[in-house]
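Subject: Predicted fold for DYW domain-containing protein, 573 residues

User T.R. writes:
Posting the sequence so we have a shared reference for the thread.
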Amino acid sequence: MGAESCIDLLLRCRNVFHIRQVHAHVVANGTLQDLVIANKLLYTYAQHKAIDDAYSLFDGLTMRDSKTWSVMVGGFAKAGDHAGCYATFRELLRCGVTPDNYTLPFVIRTCRDRTDLQIGRVIHDVVLKHGLLSDHFVCASLVDMYAKCIVVEDAQRLFERMLSKDLVTWTVMIGAYADCNAYESLVLFDRMREEGVVPDKVAMVTVVNACAKLGAMHRARFANDYIVRNGFSLDVILGTAMIDMYAKCGSVESAREVFDRMKEKNVISWSAMIAAYGYHGRGKDAIDLFHMMLSCAILPNRVTFVSLLYACSHAGLIEEGLRFFNSMWEEHAVRPDVKHYTCMVDLLGRAGRLDEALRLIEAMTVEKDERLWSALLGACRIHSKMELAEKAANSLLELQPQNPGHYVLLSNIYAKAGKWEKVAKFRDMMTQRKLKKIPGWTWIEVDNKTYQFSVGDRSHPQSKEIYEMLMSLIKKLEMAGYVPDTDFVLQDVEEEVKQEMLYTHSEKLAIAFGLIAIPEGEPIRISKNLRVCGDCHTFSKMVSSIMRRSIIVRDANRFHHFNDGTCSCGDYW
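User M.O. replies:
I've generated the structure tokens; pasting them so everyone works from the same file.
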């Protein structure tokens, strides 16, 4: 059998059985020593993910060239056999074979898929040793690997070195920033377009996800306009991403419009819309949508129930949440995992039913994680349950001794109770372990720009006007009955100092700036990386009434819509 006829037969193979028949003919005819035939046979096995057959053939070959090694490395990578991929690549290097721009991307992608940064850096050294960093495919693979391993600085350095960047590489880099710095992600998207690279639907999904993380409504509208202008269809992936984007940018109505426009919806799309209602405290709407989903014969999954229970928790729908939780396995054959238990602990804890929450935890058969204990600790903070808080905190510190948030939360509970010696003890522990409290930040959009504020911030160019507006507001609010709630200043200082510290919280500064810079009739939208404090919540309600402005606040847990002196959360958050 000649090489051409053998290759023709292999091209027509539809399954592994056919490939084995051709293999048997090749062996019988004595043409297996022809590397062209051997490599094609090896490649065909690999393409059909018959990795054991491929390796048996590879191992029996007396001659191998660089293509033979590349096909085998790539075969292991495509089959998801990471150990086989690494081992074959190591053997390639030991045999003195020079890796090429076909082999290296496969190994680098294996590092990416395993988020194996240690081996990834070793492969990077191999790339440097063989002078292949200038190769587009190799460098793009390294950028992708570092991005997925969340080493964005290294990914960025390599990205900037690339002489030519294709759409895929731009998309990877934008996605890397979307996971850790959504603002930079959108800056990079603008730069990509300026350099003449036209985004496709995949790139727009990445941009939409960045808009969601940043909560930037003006960018969300731009992304939506671009998608409509270019005629991208609202398939399940893009449509679901846009539902999430609008929900996290503060417009559940726009999210629902996208949902209704989607011709095809799967369980993920329905779950995203249920979650959107949950973020905004619209628990009853979430429940109605869940029933509509069932009537459309869409079966709920674990994600659906997490979204639904979250919505019940943030709307104070206790009995409904309990009913849905109990129905998961009995009616829908969805076994609850730790995320569902966490939602239930949060639901019961917010309602002050901490004994029930603790019983639920004790009866769990699934492994407990830090989110579960955090939910219980958060409920203890709301209801000042010191003893239970200590139990939850001890479990948290065992699981995550290096997470500063756990120390801060327990310290705040002690501070609220006036136990300053214990506060000092926990702050000393943080210092000894070199842990730092996560600073509170608030962002606001004005004229398509995003501004950032911290407590007591005076870095803004209009700082003088902002503080004048803030002091004017506070005087108006005090005349209307506002009394600063200094319980939310968790430091052992004089009452007057506590009031001054409250007055300059980052969300208050952002709202004052919004009143100066955003025209009347437009809502003031702000985002905060931590939970909004009770005093700022009261402040926002009163400002919305006195100034007749709609204020939308996205905090770490949910959205608050302030209008005419009330909040959409019903003071339950």
